[in-house]
Write a structure and sequence with these properties.
CATH architecture of the largest domain: Orthogonal Bundle
Number of helices: 9
Distance between the termini: 63 Å
Shape: elongated
Largest sheet: 3 strands, antiparallel
Strand content: 5-15%
Order of helices and strands: HEHHEEHHEHHEEHH
CATH class of the largest domain: Mainly Alpha
Helix content: 55-70%
Number of strands: 6
Number of domains: 2
């Protein structure tokens, strides 16, 4: 690869990772010298510093990360707030039910139960504050476990997880669990509407 391609690769990695990543790690990923990474990231910083861009490349103690320029922060905040307030889809309710009844659980556990990729749904629920990381399990690869949050309890009108609807025996289909969660979400929406009237 030539320097332009390395710079494009750096840009792609920094965008995809979305959290600070060290110069040394970037150098390892691209199999180039750390000094070359520094120089290429410097070029990217200069390019994104122009007024035609809404993002910037920050260097945080030797780690690099894309960030919104402060002048556009209000727009980003409004977009994120809208996304948080979007009603939950049936897939989101299903994932939330699986986590609520089995927590702490890994994303792969959720995917095994549902039979489909759930990474986007888990990310969305995390952004809405309904679930959070609960540490890493002592298993190969040390997968991240997820659990529900206080926001989940408040949103569904529960004071504790003990108030979740009981499961009939040990076996209740995920559809039944999701339906119960949807009923709770409907009750919550009705209460919010009454409070607003």
């Amino acid at each position: 690869m030539d320097l332009k391609q390395y710079k494009a690769a750096l840009e792609a990695v920094l965008f995809a990772v979305a959290e600070p990543i060290s110069t040394d790690k970037l150098a390892d990923l691209l199999a180039i010298e750390p000094q070359v990474v520094e120089r290429l990231c410097g070029h990217l910083q200069d390019e994104y510093a122009e007024q035609t861009h809404g993002i910037q490349l920050l260097c945080l103690e030797g780690r690099w990360q894309f960030a919104t320029k402060p002048v556009f922060g209000d727009y980003v905040k409004a977009a994120l707030d809208r996304r948080r307030n979007v009603p939950l889809s049936s897939a989101a309710l299903e994932v939330l039910a699986i986590i609520a009844y089995n927590q702490p659980v890994t994303r792969s556990f959720v995917e095994q139960v549902r039979g489909v990729d759930s990474s986007g749904v888990v990310q969305s629920l995390t952004q809405k504050g309904l679930i959070e990381e609960a540490g890493r399990l002592d298993l190969p690869g040390r997968p991240i476990a997820f659990r529900t949050t206080d926001v989940f309890l408040r949103s569904f009108g529960l004071s504790s997880l003990a108030e979740l609807p009981p499961l009939h025996g040990d076996e209740m289909s995920q559809e039944e669990i999701a339906a119960r969660m949807e009923q709770a979400a409907g009750r919550m929406a009705a209460q919010e509407q009454e409070a607003g009237d």
